[in-house]
Amino acid sequence: MKFKRILLKLSGEALMGEQKGGIDPAVVNMIADQVKAIRELGVAVGLVIGGGNIFRGVAGATKGMDRVTADHMGMLATMINALALQDALEQKGVQTRTLSGIEMPRVAENYIRRRAVRHLEKGRVVIFGSGTGNPYFSTDTAAALRANEINAEVVMKATKVDGIYSSDPMTDPSATRFDRISYREVLEKRLKVMDAAAIALCMDNKLPILVFDLNKPGNLVAAVMGEAVGTLVG
After folding, report:
1. Domain boundaries defined on the chain
2. pLDDT digit of tens for each residue in the chain (234 aa)?
3. What is the C-alpha to C-alpha distance for residues 191 and 109, in angstroms, rounded to an integer?
4. CATH class of the region 5-233
5. CA 81 to chain centroid
């Protein structure tokens, strides 16, 4: 294997499937199957998930809602997704722990770095909910932060496309795909990979980012094995 400890970043929208919102159980099970496959290979897996399928804090703020309140609502949305994924994994026999960046002891453990690392060492998948636990920070930034804290070897950003393109391939047929690209190029070209704070945090700590299509069966296994999947930022 190329990577033995990873941080997988999922968007909340990834859980919608073809729906307009909410959680599609079939998609959650597909993701759980792929995570189970790499866990059985011995890969330590941390996971950060967004909440955009339920509520997006920035969107609420742009419509007049207080930004801090909106972001707290977004954090709660990530916890709903985290619990859904935890349930799907455990039904498949994968030991999983959800750690929350904001205190909710009846629902999940509080995030403590040493506890998270210990869970990983015991072979459990660790889902990090509530983002960083602070407003004004995205779940992209949370993924970069948690990845560095648990000494992950890579941040794997799961998307609906097979890598990073010069423009949106859904709307621009002339868009070209990158196999590799530097952090600085991502920032200078303003490519919508992750937000600038997340890219900068990974760049400062020399943590690579792999952007790939999770919807293609076997892609996650191929990625941890070091096959040419997606686009590598580094």
Report:
1. 5-233
2. 899 999 999 998 889 888 888 999 999 999 999 999 999 999 999 999 999 899 877 788 878 889 999 999 999 999 999 999 999 999 999 999 999 999 999 999 999 999 999 999 999 999 999 999 999 999 999 999 999 999 999 999 998 888 999 888 878 888 899 999 999 999 999 888 899 999 999 999 999 999 999 988 899 999 999 998 999 999
3. 35
4. alpha beta
5. 12
